[in-house]
Amino acid sequence: MYSTFLEALTTRTDSSSFRVAERIGAVLFITVLTAVAAQISIPLPFTPVPFTFQPMVVLVGAAALGSRLGLASQVLYLALGVAGLPVFAASPMLPQGAARLLGPTGGYLMAYPFAAFLTGWLAERGFDRRYVSALLAMLCGLVVIFTGGVAWLMIGAARLNLSAALTAGFYPFVIPDFVKLLFASGVMPTLWRIIGRAQRRG
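Given the sequence above, the corresponding structure tokens read:
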């Protein structure tokens, strides 16, 4: 199994307590980035699901952190949201807080930890070191997010049929999210090349 990008950054540190602190800091950083990405949301008139940049942050963050820490960053994000902190995207229908998970976007939110775990698990096996494999790893995570979102639109508060759920939660987003994925997939291979050059010089 390959090391994650975070592990590669922290292996030079002799103090185990300092490494733990670095990992906690990295998890908090991705959690905060997820919350910030949620604030960049574009409501669409034909669906209750807004367009946000959260999925890309979730997937790139998970690739950098690995499976367990990636999952932890998203569990923490959801916990902060459930506690009432304004970390979820703005919504004209639902306030911040636990009720958001029961709303139309709840399936996407609840899928974030699982998507992060899967993408991080693939990154731990070296998928994040080449562009094509990084794209595949993040695409797998995106499938998890869409599956959770569409499934919740069907069985949750919206109670849509499959066709309506796909129209509201998949068709408007799949192409934009895939385009974002094409750019996001280059992040980790680029970072690995940078750290590789720095280590050779060191």
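The CA atoms of residues 128 and 188 lie 6 Å apart. Try to locate this feature in the token string yourself.
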